[in-house]
Amino acid sequence: MMKIQLDIKDNMSKADEISIIEKISDTLKKVDNGSKEPTNYLKCLFNESFIFWVKQQIQNDIFPEVMQYIDGYHIKEDELERANGKIKLLIEDNETLKAENEKLNDKIFDFFQRLGEVNAEHEKEVDEYLHELEQVKQSLEQKEEEIIRLKAKLYDLMSK
What we know:
Blueprint: H1 14-30, H2 41-45, H3 48-59, H4 66-159
């Protein structure tokens, strides 16, 4: 069994009041060899987060009303629940977007594959047209040479 003596007076300084809170907290930590799990009601009440909140209130010249702490806890609990809901929705949206992204990537891959096939076909056609064009040019050059020869022959025949 542990005993604690507290010297509580009217008009105490903030430091004195914080000291008393810390003394209570330290004494309760020693109960049951410093177990982190609550083994009695007071140890459960004076947990680290509550002690921190009370000290902050005193330092900020605000009277630490326990119901404010409890209400704040419930508000934070509600906010946490809403945040968890939003996170779940975002995760679902993210999964949906991943699936859509995968489908789009597949479509893009298919498109570029088809584009490559079409380009290969057109390259063959273009090569065939270029080959035909080269043959037509050669034929045209031959015809032009023949025309020049025939004109020369005609000139010779006319001049004789």
